[in-house]
C-alpha cells in the first residue's frame, strides 16, 4: 500500500465524522437507543415464532418497552426445478414481512415498511431429509427477514433526544 493510499484510508473516518455520519452501533447510534426498548408482538405460528426469536436476539427483550413492533408475515412455496416427468426437485420459499413500530401504548407510528426475500431447498432427499431441509430453509428465511427489518429500523428511525 503506498503512502498516499494510507493517508486516504486514515482520513476517511474523519471525513465521515465531518459530514454528520454516526455509526449505528457506535455511541449515540440507533442500535443502542433501541436495544431492549422494543416489544415484538407475540407469534402466532412456527414461522412467526422464529422471526420474533431472531428479532429479540437483535433488539433485545424488553421488560419496560418504549416501542411496539407488529409484524405481518406471509410465505409462499414455489416449485423451481421440474423434471421431464413433472416432479419438482427444488422449491423456493418466498417471504414477506410488513412491520409497523409504534410508541408503546399509542398508535403513533415511528417506522413502517416491508421486507421480502427467499430461500430454497432440495426435494430430492428421503422422507426425513426433505422436511428437514424445508424447516431449515424456513428458519433461514426468518433470520434473513429479521436482519432486514432491524437494518431498516436502525438506519431509518429517528428517535427523540
In short:
By secondary structure, the protein is α+β, with helices and mostly antiparallel strands. 39% of the residues lie in helices and 30% in strands. Strand 3 (88-103) and strand 4 form a beta hairpin.
Model description:
The chain is an alpha+beta fold and 161 residues long. The protein has helices at residues 3-18, 30-34, 46-59, 129-156, and strands at residues 38-40, 67-82, 88-103, 109-122. The longest helix is centred in the last third of the chain and has 28 residues, at 129-156. The protein contains 4 helices and 4 strands, in the order ααβαβββα. The protein has a 4-stranded mixed beta sheet, covered by helices on one side. The termini are far apart. The chain has one domain: Lipoprotein like domain (Double Stranded RNA Binding Domain).
Tell me the layout of helices and strands:
Layout: H1 3-18, H2 30-34, E1 38-40, H3 46-59, E2 67-82, E3 88-103, E4 109-122, H4 129-156
Parallel strand pairs: 1-2
Antiparallel strand pairs: 2-3, 3-4
Gyration radius (Cα, Å) is: 21 Å
In what range is the share of β-strand residues? 25-35%
User: What is the CATH level 1 assignment?
Assistant: Alpha Beta
Q: How would you spell out the order of helices and strands?
A: HHEHEEEH
* Secondary structure: helix percent: 25-40%
> Can you summarize the main beta sheet?
4 strands, mixed
Name the average pLDDT: 86
Number of helices: 4
Q: Which assembly state applies to the chains in this document?
A: single chain
